[in-house]
Amino acid sequence: MQQRPSLCSLEHCFLPHDEYRGYRIPANSVIIGTHGTEYSFSAILHDETMYPNPHKFDPERFLLNGKLNPEIRDSAEAAFGFGKRICPGRHVASSTLWITIASVLSTFNVGKATNEDGEVVEPTYEYFPGLVSSPRPFHCSFTPRSAQAVKVIQSTAQ
Ligand code: HEM
Q: Could you tell me if the ipTM is greater than 0.90?
């Protein structure tokens, strides 16, 4: 089974015993924040009360009249962890994702793949299982947006 390695550590060992909202946490318990898993509807990022139909790819759920909807929790509030062990790479990660996605979308039309008969191939939306999951490979289509975009893309090839 193929699984990408992760830079980040999610699990923490709780040294003294403690109590949180009436739940007893014995000493040395392993604590893992439930950010989200591909099978879960209760994890923070798949909370149906906050994100209806949480497994649907639906970026518009974060928008209201073309702007960020303040009623919808920003997923970055949970995706990078919490408290003193929050991900120290979160600003690098967010900026890198932003510039990478913006660069791709400014130069390519991204869409579903077609087969040899010209029929649209629906993506599978399947994930590798695991604590940190990633999508299984799927076919899609990248088409340069213009002749100018082709020049920009070619200028980046070494
Ligand atoms: C989208 C990309 C990333 C996501 C979603 C992510 C998410 C996380 C999460 C959930 C944790 C655990 C926080 C906790 O226990 O509360 C974590 C920890 C960590 N991350 Fe990231 N991370 C990302 C990128 C990066 C990058 C680019 C770096 C380094 C350049 C990095 C370095 C670390 C380190 C060193 C820790 C352990 C921090 C500690 O235990 O004190 N991460 N990350």
A: yes
| The amino acid at 56 | K
Any bridge partners for residue 109, and if so which? 143
- pTM of structure: 0.81
Question: How do residues 110-128 score in pLDDT, each as one tens digit?
Answer: 999 999 999 999 988 888 8
Ligand 1 geometric centre to CA of 136 (Å): 22
Residue 87 Cβ contacting ligand 1 at under 6 Å: yes
Name 108's Cβ contacts closer than 8 Å, sequence gap at least 6: 142, 143, 144, 145, 149, 153
45 lines ligand 1 (CB under 6 A): no
Considering only CA atoms, give the Rg of the chain: 20
* DSSP-based three-state secondary structure for 44: helix
Element (H, E) at 144: strand 140-144
